[in-house]
């Protein structure tokens, strides 16, 4: 039954107070955390992939993805202000749709956070390896990429993930301020790109505007296929909600952080996309038979040998500036990306650990995962476990379709959040809502439809990976989580099960 083992909102809030994290983040820090999580691999790297899927039509893809994210953000803001605890979509689903679906959402969020963290670490290592090669300090080829990407062990991706894990163990406020510096670097870099590229835009570079059309379900190409991929460039705003338990005045500050960070990033993305297409062109590459080559494929790599096309670049923004004659500025943009991308890894690992923390507190994962360090006031055990897993993952696998795989889990979670808002509007209409989604019965259904539209326009391979991942998650739930759930033990004993005291 879909509503089996629903955890009351009052109980969720009560349990959060029994084993809580220190409240230390304000609205500015939250907005910066959101921007830090959003601006990253998506805009610095995936612009080229979007261009290969949709050509100049990727401009429309940016808009579509932004609209879907904005709709989802409004739903997130209402639930995050009502339930200011860690756990994001997992916690909200538990309170509305029940334990089984909550577990699936929590499991899907691993795709959004852990997979994304590994992907960004790999993207970062590519930038740094390029800088090292240009400085005649290249690592051995065996250590530049993982075994599934022609190498042996991606050393830089492995190291940066471990360093960020250590930073997160030391403390949230410290990592937040380091993140603020990295966010500033990213914003300065994007401003420099916009300043140079937008005035250089030429109308012929936008023709033909839709060389691959609108796309088709499970095709992964066209404008909708590009929107489904470029959605990765916006993912991260919901990570703000995972910081709810560490936020001062969360009922006010969470909505500010969510909508503020998304709004800032959307403006940047539209300007950057226009500048990239207008200044350098963005026509996709086809084979001799006129078939569109798949982004990231060996066929595209071979077709791109010796080409200066935007779709062939691994660092598209720096590439555009170099093509315009700004070689030094292009190199500085590449350096800025190398310095700033770790902030995205930081927020992805941060979000994942907070979701695991709450799942552990609910009994669905081992209790040791929710222990809080007595000095640093952080969930150190699960942070270390997650960081090691991400480090190994980044060291072994290429970026490939990881962005799309991450998107599949994210879109599923967004649908559950929008559904939850509507159900609570009916079942608990009088519960205080510091932030109310405007026109909820219009916004939330549109958010659901938008997420489904992008989901079905992911590639068939991505959808298969998501389905297999969901089945594995259900097996874990029925083997462990179902029997160790505190809510289940409460049902069996006919009363509430005492939650472990804080280990601070």
From TrEMBL:
Keywords: Membrane, Transmembrane, Transmembrane helix, Transport
Main location: membrane
Taxonomy, superkingdom: Bacteria
The keyword Transport is assigned to this record: yes
Subcellular location: Membrane
Membrane topology of the entry: Multi-pass membrane protein
Transmembrane intervals: 28-46, 58-77, 89-110, 117-139, 151-170, 177-198, 218-237, 258-277, 332-351, 381-403, 409-427, 439-456, 462-480
Entry annotated with the keyword Membrane: yes
Record protein name field: Amino acid permease
Source species taxonomy: Bacteria, Pseudomonadati, Pseudomonadota, Gammaproteobacteria, Lysobacterales
């Amino acid at each position: 039954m879909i509503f089996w083992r629903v955890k009351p909102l009052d109980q969720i809030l009560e349990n959060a107070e029994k084993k809580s994290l220190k409240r230390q983040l304000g609205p500015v820090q939250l907005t910066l955390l959101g921007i830090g999580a959003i601006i990253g691999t998506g805009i610095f790297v995936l612009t080229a992939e979007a261009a290969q899927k949709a050509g100049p039509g990727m401009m429309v893809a940016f808009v579509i993805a932004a609209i879907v994210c904005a709709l989802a953000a409004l739903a997130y803001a209402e639930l995050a202000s009502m339930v200011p605890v860690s756990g994001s979509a997992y916690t909200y689903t538990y309170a509305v749709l029940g334990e089984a679906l909550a577990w699936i959402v929590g499991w899907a969020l691993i795709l959004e956070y852990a997979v994304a963290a590994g992907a960004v670490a790999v993207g970062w290592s590519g930038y740094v390896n390029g800088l090292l090669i240009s400085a005649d300090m290249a690592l051995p080829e065996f250590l530049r990429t993982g075994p599934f990407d022609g190498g042996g062990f991606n050393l830089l991706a492995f190291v940066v993930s471990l360093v960020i894990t250590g930073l997160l163990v030391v403390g949230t406020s410290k990592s937040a301020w380091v993140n603020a510096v990295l966010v500033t670097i990213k914003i300065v870099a994007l401003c420099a790109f916009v300043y140079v590229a937008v005035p250089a835009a030429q109308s012929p570079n936008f023709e033909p505007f839709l060389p691959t059309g609108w796309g088709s379900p499970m095709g992964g190409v066209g404008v909708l296929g590009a929107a489904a991929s470029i959605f990765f460039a916006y993912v991260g705003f919901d990570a703000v909600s995972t910081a709810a338990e560490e936020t001062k005045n969360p009922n006010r500050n969470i909505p500010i952080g969510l909508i503020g960070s998304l709004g800032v990033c959307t403006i940047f993305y539209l300007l950057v996309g226009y500048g990239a297409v207008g200044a350098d062109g963005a026509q996709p590459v086809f084979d001799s038979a006129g078939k569109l080559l798949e982004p990231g494929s060996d066929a595209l790599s071979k077709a791109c040998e010796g080409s200066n096309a935007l779709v062939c670049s691994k660092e598209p923004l720096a590439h555009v500036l170099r093509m315009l004659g700004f070689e030094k500025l292009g190199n500085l943009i590449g350096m800025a990306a190398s310095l700033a991308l770790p902030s995205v890894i930081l927020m992805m690992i941060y979000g994942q650990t907070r979701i695991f923390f709450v799942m552990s507190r609910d009994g669905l994962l081992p209790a040791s995962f929710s222990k809080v360090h007595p000095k640093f006031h952080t969930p150190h055990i699960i942070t270390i476990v997650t960081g090691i897993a991400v480090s190994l993952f980044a060291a072994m696998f290429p970026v490939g379709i990881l962005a799309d795989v991450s998107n599949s889990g994210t879109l599923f979670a967004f649908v559950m959040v929008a559904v939850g808002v509507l159900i609570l509007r009916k079942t608990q209409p009088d519960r205080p809502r510091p932030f109310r989604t405007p026109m909820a019965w219009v916004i939330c259904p549109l958010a659901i439809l938008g997420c489904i539209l992008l989901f079905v326009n992911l590639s068939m391979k991505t959808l298969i990976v998501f389905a297999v991942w969901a089945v594995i998650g259900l097996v874990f739930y029925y083997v462990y989580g179902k029997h160790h759930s505190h809510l289940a033990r409460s049902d069996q004993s006919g009363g509430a099960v005492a939650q472990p005291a804080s280990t601070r």
